[in-house]
Amino acid sequence: MSPAARARRAPSPRDVRVLLVFGLVYAAACVAGRETLVPGARVSLVWPAAGISVLWLVARARRPWPWLDWGLIGVITAAAVLVTGTPPGAALLGGVAATLQATLCVLVVARYAPRLWAARGYRQLDRVTELWWLVFGAVTGALVSAPLAQLAVALTDQGTTWETALLWSARNTVSILTIGLLGWTLGGALHDRRLRRGARGGSAWWTDGHRLDVLGAVLLAPAAYVLWFLWQWELAVVFPLIAFTVWAGSRLPTSAVVVHTSLCGSVVVLMTLGGIGPMAELPDPGLRVGIAQLYVGLLTVIGMALALAGAERRRLVGALSVARDRAQAQAGLLASVLETMSEGVRVVDAAGRVVVRNPTAARLLTGRSDLDPADSLTDLAGLTRLDGSALRDDELPFRRALVEGRVRDVDLMVRTPGVPQPRVVTFSATRIPAGSGGGVVTVLRDVTEERAELRRAATVQASLLPARTPDLPGFEVAARFVPAGSVGGDFYDWERVAGGLVITMADVMGKGPAAAILAATTRSLLRAQPVPEDVAATLSGAERALDADLVNAGAFVTMFRGFLDPSTGDLAYADAGHGLSLVVRPDGSLRRLPATGLPLGIAAGPERVGARTRLLPGDVLVTFSDGLLDVLGGSIDDLARVRDVVRGTVTADDAAAAVLALAGDAADAEDDLTVLVLRRLPGRAPAGVPHPRGADGLPG
Fold this sequence. Notes:
Layout: H1 3-8, H2 13-34, H3 49-59, H4 66-83, H5 88-112, H6 114-119, H7 128-154, H8 162-196, H9 211-230, H10 242-251, H11 254-273, H12 285-340, E1 344-348, E2 354-357, H13 359-366, E3 383-384, H14 397-404, E4 406-414, E5 423-431, E6 440-446, H15 448-464, E7 475-482, E8 490-497, E9 500-508, H16 513-527, H17 535-553, E10 557-565, E11 570-576, E12 581-584, E13 590-593, E14 611-614, E15 620-624, H18 626-632, H19 639-647, H20 652-661, E16 673-680
Antiparallel strand pairs: 1-2, 1-6, 3-4, 4-5, 5-6, 7-16, 8-9, 9-10, 10-11, 11-14, 12-13, 12-15, 15-16
Protein name: PPM-type phosphatase domain-containing protein
InterPro entries: Bact_Sigma-Reg, PAS-like_dom_sf, PPM-type-like_dom_sf, PPM-type_phosphatase-like_dom
Transmembrane segments: 43-59, 66-84, 90-110, 131-153, 173-191, 261-280, 292-311
């Protein structure tokens, strides 16, 4: 809720009770303070109302009608001063000064100690910084309001001196510190007691288990002050008594220290007011109590600073202990995980020294797990390339990761003593950021059986591809296939049938073994169709048979399938979402054969439709998978590069090789690369054959 909204909202019954209680307590504190106005003093020597006013404003933090708090503080102060014989003008200035002082102090607390402000008096200080901001706020409020107090005194015809400002600032600062701290301590203790319902194991809220120490701090220390003051020691001799506060602040909780400093401070001020003790020997009454107030402030700040620092230190030690226990537990869990992992883990620092090496890594690299933890070289001695050649030091995966940042799936051969057959181990290494210590973490996995299975799968897949080019007078056929892994989801096929040649280019979504299985299934279903030359019906039949498998796998298949009549050069084709088939003519013109339907597995049901075109002498049909288009740039405009390389070739095999060469190093491709080329040899078209027309019947 915004401050404006709070100001408009009416106070609740609780707000009224808080205002009533604090108003009465504040009025009593003002009257009690005015009782300490002695002859010769221009202002009251003690003013507990300053501390009460700060507690009042904090208790009403973010409540409706905040102006009512300021007004009541000013009115009550002015009334108390007025009834004790002060002129109205001076009384009014005194009320304004008291209100200004409390407001400035609370503004500092709200801005720089928001936890105290938000708690509304139900939490005591627990950080040294909160104490310093409270001191700063109290001093600021007292100093800023002191000129108003001096002006008020001047209006009483008593005159004013620097002692007036000193006494005002000292007494009000000490009042805010002692009474404010005592009020927050009591409020926090009552709040905690209500929440815990007294469950403290029998220990009082302010002793925290230090009963004997607290007894000395709250009984013996004040008694020592009484005796010390009764003996009328010199003023300088009073300061050794601060040792009691240093001892209390070093050993006791903050609650007990607040009680201790409040009691000791009360003894000092009251006995000085009574003319007893070393401070009573000073000639001026205001100066006497001013020095006493400053002494009490010194006690309060020293004791609370030590107590709060000790509490922070204990919390920090506790948090560190908890963090240490958690770290040890996590380290133990991590060690157990590393010990039981089926993958090897090898961690080195930036210099290449082994930091962590689990047993699996040691066994994969050396055949045994009892390696010396400080040995960083022995486990790498058996590494070679897959062809058995020696591995350079800069080719080691962790060395590469130090330079490149990350290395993925590097297959190396490992020869270990006593093992007749070498193993293939794949390495994935990642550089550790310098902020985390630097180095490299490497994960090792034995892929010997997996690679053997993939080699067998690749052999099977290769056996499914056409082994020989067909003998087709006037035409040449060639193809290239490079899977992204050992096996892939692309395939090409050609089949000599009565009356011509059927060619197929297909691309199963994805790569790897799963795509390869679907590709083999698709090829088998196409081969099983009864009328292969009816390419549209062939696609429809294969799609019906594949539909359930494609749905279960969440996959689809793009395909180009054509039937060539070599006597005329007519090509009947059906394109299922492939769209990467081109006719390149000798004059350099390019015709892209559009798709005639969606990929298989997208919307099974409607019968497939086909289209026709004709290949003239010298024409080249090129169809390829989308892996090649991705390498080229992914744009249809990039197809012109295919035309350019095809025009410079004289055979279908040259054309297929030239198109594949556009991919650069095909071994690094992220998708399967497949190219199928059908070329009509140069020569004259048969007599009586009309000029070829496009797939839509228009001239090509």
